[in-house]
Design goal:
Elements: E1 3-5, E2 12-14, E3 18-23, H1 39-47, E4 55-62, E5 69-75, E6 81-86, H2 93-96, H3 101-120
Bound molecules: zinc ion.
Zinc ion (ZN) is lined by residues 6, 8-9, 11, 62, 65-66, 68.
Length: 121
Amino acid sequence: MLTLVCPVCGAHGDETDFHAGGQAHIRRPASHDPEHISDQEQADYLFTRINPKGLHFERWRCDRGCGKWFHAARDTVTLEFKAYYGITELPPPDIMAQARGAWADYFKARQKAAAKAGAKS
Ligand SMILES: [Zn+2]
């Protein structure tokens, strides 16, 4: 049984009190310019998912509390939740540092983009 805590309202419960929404941090490819999206980009958006053994990042919705979506970092081996964070946020830095493989690459790219955006403003 999975036990979760909603980071928005603080509701506690098992996985039946929440709705699993699949992989976190999936971004739709440039939907403002659909003619320039390649078939591969569209296929990756629709079908390609990270499926690691170990630390994974997921979307969950608080069904019996506030009804809000949030992100959770969960170890797929131990089933332990490591962190909960907002739907528009990145995981806490110590959790991102533990990410491996495709997740590590993703967070490095996001942090680099955020630093570049911060440097412009
Ligand atoms: Zn909630």
